[in-house]
């Protein structure tokens, strides 16, 4: 196993559960990848993912197996807001990815204007075939509801969640089932509403008391109990075939400690890194794999502010805001008011203390360019975040009110599911099938988000085990013991 984010941990757990001896190698000094924790003003908070989508049973099932079902919590129904060039407006409260379930609702007028609202309402009167052949999310929404819905309602959501404009996203990858629901229900609004209603408990996302980082912790505990070998702080630099066993040799280096190399051997190999790393490691073993240059997505930074201000007790912007790219008054792309969203965070923070999470890093035309805000030193980014938070919340916040702040930077953590994503993934996996005993998992293949990553990872591991002829119940252990060379 290479890579110890959620995909790697889940894959390792499923392999161990079938009786295999597992070695997992992770480059960082901690496991969990984008699902981790940090401490700010004495509070243990999520440093990356803070929730999971409830549209599929994948995450709830995993949580059940790990004994975490009782810790599942739902966000408070405080509504969310959009920040547009003209200021903050309430966001549509039903639908998916910002697509309103009722495009005629008068409350959308603040965001869309009169003409935009009229155009959006045409969705109800068009034949279901209009837009049905559009492959991008932006193309589909534009055809049905018009440009204003794309720019003002959907783009703020997709830039926040997927770091990409709706025109760059494959609709089937980011909103699975939406096109089918359009055919069934006759309009995009009805389709979005149906998808939203299909989410259990009426809420599109859920979290865990203590944060999503407790999922990574539980996975690690489970793996340790199962006897898996977890190697951190080792960067996998190359893969080689193991002629003795018809398996793999995983060559690692410990960059912080003299760059000495070590080798782990095994019959089965699961790569759970980012896409560029997986392609680099596998490319030398099969020419056809080299042409898969995955789109990395921009670097992002998360600024967490803990501020003392009772004026925020009333949650003036509900659970938070998504910011339109046209709104020049702020540089953040989203703000989550964590103490208004999650009861457990509010209780941990105590009266009058608030946790605000601001994310930075819009997609750049050239993906190798670091977004300017992400390039700022920590202290400058904290100052920018405080000023953005004041504008977004409508409450001026001063530096002396800061009880604590932290900046977490993520590289390659939000890969983009561009148009044609599903076909590219299928073609990649067809090539990979020429390397028996090998699987690749992770967000760059499954799509961003825990729900997609967990479901896809488990499916890939099942397929790998079936192809390798590993029996369903107790299985013959596969040797993958690392040997220091
Ligand atoms: C700030 C942020 C907020 C998010 N919020 C949410 C949310 O609220 N809800 C949600 O569902 N999703 C959210 N996501 C997305 C979600 O966290 C990811 O889609 C998911 O965690 C990806 O898991 P992964 O295992 O594929 O990748 P990662 O977590 O990126 O793990 C990949 C691992 O591979 C390791 N690795 C890379 N190269 C090597 C190498 N050469 N050798 C060894 N190891 C290597 C990396 O160090 C890393 O630990 C968020 C992501 C970010 C960044």
UniProtKB/TrEMBL annotation:
UniProt keyword rRNA-binding present: no
Start and end residues of each Amine oxidase domain: 6-425
Entry EC no(s): 1.3.3.15
One Pfam family, short name: Amino_oxidase
InterPro entries: Amino_oxidase, FAD/NAD-bd_sf, Protoporphyrinogen_oxidase, Zeta_carotene_desat/Oxidored
The protein's enzyme class: oxidoreductase
Keyword annotations of the record: Cytoplasm, FAD, Flavoprotein, Heme biosynthesis, Oxidoreductase
Catalytic activity, as annotated: coproporphyrinogen III + 3 O2 = coproporphyrin III + 3 H2O2
Cofactor list: FAD
Function: Involved in coproporphyrin-dependent heme b biosynthesis. Catalyzes the oxidation of coproporphyrinogen III to coproporphyrin III.
Family: Belongs to the protoporphyrinogen/coproporphyrinogen oxidase family. Coproporphyrinogen III oxidase subfamily.
Protein name: Coproporphyrinogen III oxidase
